[in-house]
Amino acid sequence: MVGSAKTAAKSAKKQGTLFSFFSKKPVSSPASSHDDNDKANTKNIAGPTTVIATSVSSFSSNSSGADTNKNNQVTSNHQSLIDTSKQERLLSMIKVGTAISVYWPDDDEYYNAKVTAKKRQPSENSNVVTLLYDDGEVETLDLTHEAFKILDKDESPSGSQLERKRKIIHESEEEEFEDDSEEEEFDDESEEEFVAEDNDSSDDDDDGVFETMDVTDEDMEENLSMSRKKKSSTSRKRLCVTSIQSPNEVKKSYQKCSSMDKKHSTPSFITPPPNTKSVIGGAKLNSFASFASDSSMKKSGLSGQQKVTPMSQLSPSDSSNKRSSSTKFNIPFPLNGVVNQAGTHYHNHFQFLRPENIRDGEGRPMSHPDYNCRTLKVDYQEMERVTGSKLTPASQQWWELKAQYADTILLFKTGKFYEIFHMDADIAAQVLGFTYMKGAVAHAGFPEVGYGGFAEKLVKAGYKVARVEQTETPEMLKERKNNSKKGAKKPMVVNREVCSIVSSGTRTFCYMDDVSALDGDNGNCGIGPLLSIKETIFENNDTANDSDEDEVRARPVCEYGITVVDAATGVITLGQFADDVLRSRMNTLLTNFRPSEVLVESGSAGVSKTLLSLLQSVKKSILPSCIIEKVHETETFPQSNAIDADVRSYLQRPSQHVKPWDKEETLRELHRRGYYPRSSKNANMSSPHEGTGRWPDVLKACILGGADLALSSFGAALFYLQRSLIDEDILSLGIVKAYIPPDPASISGSETKESQSHSSAHSLTEIASEQQRKEDGTDAHGTPVFTSNECDVSMESDISHLSLDGTTIANLEILANSHSNTVSGSLWSKINFTKSPFGSRLLRAWLLRPLFRKSDIDRRADAVEELVSGAAAAAMSEARAALSKCGDLERLLSRVHSMGGNGKNGSGTYHPNERAVLYETAIHTKRKVGDFSKLLNGLRALSQIPETFDGIEINSALLTRVVRTTDRGGLFPSKLDETLDWYFDNFDCKKAADGLFEPARGMDDDYDYACDSINRIKQELEEYKNEMCSSVLKPSHQAKREWTYVNVKVDSKDKYIIELPINIQVPGDFIVKGKRGKGAKQVNKYRTPVVERLVEELERAYDVMKAGTARGMQLVFAKFDSQRTLWASAAQASAMIDALGSLAYASSKAGYTRPVIKDCPIDGSPSISIIQGRHPCVEFTHSGDDFIPNDLTMGSIQPDEEGAKILLLSGPNMGGKSTLLRQTCLIAILAQIGCFVPAEKCALTPFDRIFTRLGASDRILLGQSTFFVELAETAAALRGANRRSLVIMDELGRGTSTFDGTAIASAAVKHLVERNRCISLFATHYHSLLEDWKGKPGVRLGHMECIVEEFEARSYGDVPDEDPKESNITFLYTLGEGGCPKSFGINVARLAGLPEEVLRKAKNISLNFEQSMNSSSANHSDSQLSIRTKVKDAVNHDDWSLIEKLWDSLQ
After folding, report:
1. Global confidence as pTM
2. What does the alpha-carbon distance between residue 792 and residue 810 come to, in Å, rounded to a whole number?
3. Is residue 796's pLDDT more than 90?
4. 942 — phi, psi (to 5°)?
5. Which long-range contacts (CB under 8 A, 24 or more apart) does 756-760 make?
6. How do residues 92-104 score in pLDDT, each as one tens digit?
7. Do 872 and 820 contact (CB within 8 A), yes or no?
């Protein structure tokens, strides 16, 4: 706190010097000089008592010694003004709210003020009050030693007071974004580095004071010279701010400053005290200070030392007094020249930013259903009232941008720095740990080179970030101003444009971005795509006439159109599908893609509450950082700031009000912007559906097939990409894929009836199937055909993959574990040993889409087996080393496409990035060249892979195809090396990185012509020299020797000046331009008409050459991008090699074996046999021992056998039932992706779907209880499973009563046995269920074995023990035959640590209940036996009357 006090003292001293007109000289006597020093300090600081709680600490009385001495120079005139008796009477009348007029001796005037706080200290005979002057100044002083008078309520400000207010406004500093300058300023020397102020002592470093940046914009001002004179004394001042304090330190400082016997201090740091609410009177928070009004914004979890708690805004201002609102909640008004605390800056005083006053661009309040958080209605008049002056042109420019990007943080470029203002600065202080700069405007910033890191932090915290660049230089502004029409308003500020908006789902990771986030886990680092969803709900139909078959299947209740945009790689995925009441398919899509940002439609026709609840539920569970963004039916498209009208017209939509979800408008916009090549030159097409013949196949299928929902979602994504200014980079790549979700029979059976676009769905399915075959490497082989009359078998020929829905992926922990939602411990972590990001993405796709056809599985498994050992394995090791060097080729190809002008000539210049004035071009160039060099070197390394496998005999057809070149029937592009050689020969990466790149001959005709012209002109200049020296100049021999051309460099001014001694005789056309030396040694500088003509021609050639040099790299990138198909083919083949190598690496582990994939003919039965199988993700038991393997056999192992298809599994709690269920499913998945499995032997028929009912979880946000979720998962299995499915159910029915649970479980088993006829593992604790199905055909009983040891129970307290025996359970974790009589739940309770008393009571209750059940069962059996015996006797004796009596007794 001592260090902070020193900082505050220095700050106060400087403030007193800069704002001396705020101070006056109070009366003091020599005897009380010490007290007067304190009072003087209080005056000079002008700090409000309402923020004493936020002051760091008091500072010593001699910290402002100069001011104190000045204040002690009391005039006799001032002394005479104080009448002690009268003053005592007036002091007794002072209270909070009293209007007084205080005498300021330096001005010899009284100024009106209102008392906002009062504290009396009788021991010091002082009356300390806080005053708020009419001009907004806040002052703390002791009225005991002041001349003042009490005003009547209707007394108006004096003329001198108004004059003083004008004086303050006139004399205050003129800053670009302050409230008091009328024009923006520009200084040639504004780009200086920031160092600590020379006057600051070394103590500042110890106090944690970090240096801030003092910058001025590179803008023009009309009166530039006058402004520089005015600011000459302070132009190089440095701002000193106090570091952020922890909450504890804040509290201590508040306690110190709360007593008036302490010295006063200035409010000089950010974080307000914990009791801010009490200080401000509980006013509502400024929602725009925290972006609370934007659904896409969220607060990051920062520590208390980093958080900024914005103070409340004030009540509405009185129009007659622009600053009177400050008194209502006792919130201080910001001061110039000091570091104001959070919540006290100008924007906190703007009423139009208060939650109840906020309006969007159309004037709608936040409560309006169509309120648009992306726009803001700005009240410029109120800002002028609050600040007391007109906005500067730069401030006006900032607010105009903010009105269009209200939900976005603006990084506003001024010179070399990105400046952050107003509410955006509050966020920067909170998230980035910045401190505010001095001034009444909240202000922070950082240099251009820091953009990538800081923008990434803001995006990770959930914010959108707009990069606003200067798109003209001061010289260009001056020229534009001179060229402006007469009478038109002249531009006063350099033009700025939004160049990009970065959000969670729109990160392209360009050369300005921080790409470190892509380094982890081969690019799988939680950076998800952008997802756009369009939903339509089906009307309820009468189900009375539904057939039995329809009742079995799930009726689709809605249909979705989706667009997935991977901004990093430029891949767009379109899809449209129907979904059931549980939104199973949507849940699967969210689980597979894991988006970072989701766009949904708002309004009455927008997204349903069910889908919103699902999104919130998924966000809570597996996507905690996902942003849900609502896009309205009608949106306001931001207007471009480009100076050129054609550029503005290109970047803007034809109408400012757009309909993002409208299909027709989307197609028109696609045509207008020309993202895809047109198939017709007819400009007057009658329909936007025309001219799409050369568009991507998937997009054409959606248009021609009527996939309106998919196109609608694509339109919303297009709007969002255009708004973010990355649409050209992504769409022009032309990579559009189709998405087909796992297609359970439960939905697909009714899709033809309910779906609005069955034909489009069929087309998309065909395209998606073709894409999947290419990714799987199965596109070169035919598909088998099955024929059958059985309903559930007839469709097997159409199945190509094992379907895994979102529930199964989560329950089996395939992508992430369930406890921390990370990849650690998941199946993905156990097989992902890829060396490249693109290989990792392909392997992930394989894992989520296992193969189904035996031939496809065997083909991949053959390749994996060959890579496990032998010569191919050695070659694979070399190939993996090459793969580790290539980086993310898919992302780098996307970046080069963007750097090459997006494949278009000319239109690339329309993007604001092409006009941005950047100062770190050397760094940006190095990054661009670095990406390109990484891409070239990566492709060069990949080109060696086919050579690595040359000479090796490969038996696998798939592996042969992957590692061979196209001229040998493989996938690898042939002559890849030769194509790369051109780039290595013509692009020197080292020179290019240093900015020395020169285009090669033949690359650019204009550049080549300019270079030829330069050489010709230089030759002509030499010839002219020789001609003049030999025939014109005298003496010629001296002229030849002394003739010198100076200023011959490219950047030189006055090029090719001729220097000759004075004694050389020259003709009259040699014009003297200067001289050096004197007397006989004088040398004259000449310019001749011939040389002047040649130099002018040379300058023009140099300009063309410079433009060609700058354009040269882009031309190289464009040429490279034109061969993208070649590079993409190499990347695809390499990805397949990498994925196969990863599976081979996983398969080479000890204890892994290749599974046998069996045929499942029509008359056959599915089966699975695992010998000594282990869970692939569990290596040890919970006790630390090695994992215990298990044997499992289900189905028909021999053709002539009919094995059991359902296993009823019982056993003790924690005995390993769930583990056995999970490991069976995971082994099946590994087998069907072509990987070896953790078992001694394994044989199975492929499964088409896996259904899981595991664990206990609810979906509160969806209104679904734990038991509901349990039954919903069961329903999905019972509806969708067929003979080729695998079903696991763990403890079905435990969420309700024993009787209901047993009944549901028994009915489910019956349905699985009789209707589904699939392989099922059913774990249960219902022992009656075991008895019911014991010995039934198709059902097998099994249990997890354990050893039960009984011993004498020890006594405990007063609880009687009805069973003197205790049991100790030893889990064997092995599967045994038959049922288990007990579950041994008391043993688990003991392991969980339940109190012994509770355990003993539970044991007694359990024993009594068991005895009661057994007794009831025995009595029932005895009764049945007795009646049976009597009936037999009666029949033997023909005693029909007895039989009649027995019958009556049974009724």
Report:
1. 0.74
2. 27
3. no
4. -65, -30
5. 756/536, 756/559, 756/706, 756/708, 756/709, 757/576, 757/705, 757/706, 757/707, 757/708, 757/709, 759/705, 759/706, 760/576, 760/701, 760/702, 760/704, 760/705, 760/706, 760/707, 760/710
6. 788 878 888 888 8
7. no
Distance CA 215, CA 22 (A): 26
DSSP three-state, residue 912: helix
The helix/strand/coil state of 250 is: helix
Residue 882 contacts by C-beta under 8 Å, 6 or more apart in sequence? 941, 942, 944, 945, 948
Give the DSSP H/E element, type plus range, for residue 663: helix 663-673
Q: What is the CA radius of gyration of the chain?
A: 41
- Structure tokens belonging to residue 1306: 């028994």
Within 576-662, residue ranges assigned H as helices are: 584-593, 609-621, 645-651
In 3D space, the residue among 495, 493, 470 whose CA is nearest the CA of residue 393 turns out to be 493
Amino acid at residue number 158: S
Length of the chain: 1451
Q: Name the DSSP class of 556.
A: P
Q: Please name the amino acid found at residue 672.
A: R
Query: In angstroms, rounded to a whole number, what is the distance separating the alpha carbons of residues 293 and 302?
Result: 20
Cα-flanking dihedrals φ and ψ of residue 467, to 5°? -95, 110
- Say how far apart CA 844 and CA 113 lie, in whole Å: 71
Instruction: Say how far apart CA 837 and CA 840 lie, in whole Å.
Output: 5
**At which residue do the structure tokens 């600053």 appear?**
323
Non-local CB neighbours of 1209 within 8 Å, separated by 6+ positions? 1217, 1220, 1221, 1321, 1322, 1323, 1324, 1342, 1343, 1344, 1375
Q: How many angstroms separate the first and last alpha carbons of the chain? A: 93
Q: What is the rounded distance in angstroms from the CA atom of residue 990 to the CA atom of residue 997? A: 9
Q: Which of 674, 735, 649 is nearest to 904 (CA)?
A: 674
- The contacts of residue 173 (CB under 8 Å, 6+ apart) are 18, 180, 231, 234, 336, 337
108 Cβ neighbours under 8 A, 6+ residues apart: 77
- In sequence order, the 6+-apart residues with CB closer than 8 A to the CB of 1110 are none
Write down the H helix ranges in 1043-1172. Answer: 1089-1122, 1124-1147
pLDDT in tens, 344-395: 999 999 999 999 999 999 999 999 988 999 999 999 999 999 998 899 999 9
DSSP 938-986: HHHHHHTHHHHHTT-----HHHHHHHSBGGGTSSBPTTHHHHHHHHHHH
Q: Which amino acid is at 442?
A: A
Closest CA to 639 of 803, 404, 816, 866: 404
Torsion of the alpha carbons at 1061, 1067, 1068 and 1074, rounded to the nearest 10: -20
